[in-house]
Design a protein that fits this description.
The protein is mainly β. It contains no helices and eleven strands. Strands 2, 4, 5, 6, 9, 10 and 11 form a seven-stranded mixed beta sheet that branches. A hairpin with a 6-residue loop joins β5 and β6. The chain is globular, with a radius of gyration of 13 Å.
């Protein structure tokens, strides 16, 4: 497994921006497919965005497409989630996840990830 620590959450008004960071340790970072998930109270943990090993390919949930951007810096063992034009429905705990996989990189099911961070709260007020 890899150890993941998220940061950057907080309270923001609708239309504002936040950037989440996830620092990884314990396993060769570039070997991992990385993703962000989120979970709102009473809801299942849901896929938000994913990124391939080099960062050349990305994928997004329809609800965040064109507003969120996932990126990674393999030299810093860190993955980011830039969130712009935030909406109240984006309020959730955001989790970073890692999967040690080869082949297909576009993983969206939480069961496919073997390492998780502790989560960071994002609250968007209207």
């Amino acid at each position: 497994q890899v150890q993941l620590v998220e940061s950057g959450g907080g309270l923001v008004q609708a239309g504002g921006s936040l950037r989440l960071s996830c620092a990884a340790s314990g396993r060769t970072f570039i070997s991992n497919i990385m993703a962000w998930f989120r979970q709102a109270p009473g809801n299942e943990r849901a896929f938000v965005a994913g990124i391939s090993w080099s960062g050349a390919s990305t994928a997004y949930a329809d609800s965040v497409k064109d507003r969120f951007t996932i990126s990674r810096d393999n030299a810093k063992n860190t993955v980011y989630l830039q969130m712009d034009n935030l909406k109240p429905e984006d309020t959730a705990v955001y989790y970073c996840a890692a999967a040690l996989r080869a082949g297909a990189w576009d993983l969206r099911a939480k069961g496919e990830f073997d390492s998780w961070g502790q989560g960071t709260q994002v609250t968007v007020s209207s």
